[in-house]
Amino acid sequence: MSVLLLALVVGGLLAVWFARDTSHAIPDLVGLEQGEALNTISEFDWEETVVLEASDDVPVGEVIRTDPAAGGRLDVGDAFTIVVSTGPAPRALPELVGLDVEQATAALSELALVLEIGAQPFDEVVPVGEVVSWTVPDQPGLVAGDTVLPGTPVVVVVSAGPAPRVVPDLTGLTPADAQATLEGLGLVAAPLPDEFSPTVSVGAIARQDPAPGTEVPRGATVSFAVSLGPDLVVVPPLADLGVDEARAALEAAGLVLGQVKGDPAGVNVLAEVNGVSIGADASFPRGTVVDLTFAVPAPPPVETTPTSAPPG
Question: What sequence ranges are listed for the domain PASTA (predicted)?
Answer without folding.
Answer: 20-86, 87-160, 161-228, 229-296
